[in-house]
Amino acid sequence: MDTLKKHLPGSGQEGLHELQNMAQRFEEKIFTAATSQ
C-alpha cells in the first residue's frame, strides 16, 4: 500500500479512496482468475 501511495499523483482522502478502489479491483481479478481454473 505504501509503495502504491508513492506513485499515486493525487493526495489526501480522494487519492487514498482511488487507491483502495484500484486495490479492490486488482484483488477481484486475481480471485476470479484463481477460481476459474
TrEMBL record:
<dbReference type="InterPro" id="IPR036546">
    <property type="entry name" value="MED15_KIX"/>
</dbReference>
<protein>
    <submittedName>
        <fullName>Mediator of RNA polymerase II transcription subunit 15a-like protein</fullName>
    </submittedName>
</protein>
<dbReference type="GO" id="GO:0003712">
    <property type="term" value="F:transcription coregulator activity"/>
</dbReference>
<dbReference type="GO" id="GO:0005634">
    <property type="term" value="C:nucleus"/>
</dbReference>
<dbReference type="Pfam" id="PF16987">
    <property type="entry name" value="KIX_2"/>
</dbReference>
<feature type="domain" description="Mediator complex subunit 15 KIX">
    <location>
        <begin position="1"/>
        <end position="37"/>
    </location>
</feature>
<dbReference type="GO" id="GO:0006355">
    <property type="term" value="P:regulation of DNA-templated transcription"/>
</dbReference>
<keyword id="KW-0539">Nucleus</keyword>
<dbReference type="InterPro" id="IPR036529">
    <property type="entry name" value="KIX_dom_sf"/>
</dbReference>
